Amino acid sequence: MAQSIALPTxxxxxxxxxxxxxxxxxxxxxxxxxxxxxxxxxxxxLAQIFKGNEIRTLKTEIGTLVSVTxxxxxxxxxxxxxTTLSLLLPTVNLNPDxxxxxxxxxxxxxxxRHYGNIxxxxxxxxxxESYRVTSLKxxxxxxxxxx
Length: 147
Prior knowledge:
The chain is built from no helices and nine strands. By secondary structure, it is an all-beta fold. The protein has a nine-stranded antiparallel β-sheet, with no helix packed on it.
């Protein structure tokens, strides 16, 4: 009779704590709704906090894309640039004993040009979006261990 081998339980993180030289990001799904805090280390009082449907997620074969729109939206009559922050979060399997796992995450800052509604307005010619990719380091963790 073959013996069954007990495999360890794999746990998924509910919090990503990320940083680079001047950017600090915490993304958490541990409460009733997801929350993402984006701040500049040089200006922590200007932190932006996003909750619930302000956060968009998309599972892909290369990870989960988590996106928020940074800053105020431009006046729709005048137009302006809209910047979106997207995090490409990897799949992380945490040790069943708890603790955190180190992660490397890509942050993609997309700036999209918008023209206003006031006529006449020129069409957008050429490239509409521009991208800046930043590597973030940090940890993925589980705030509470579940049985």
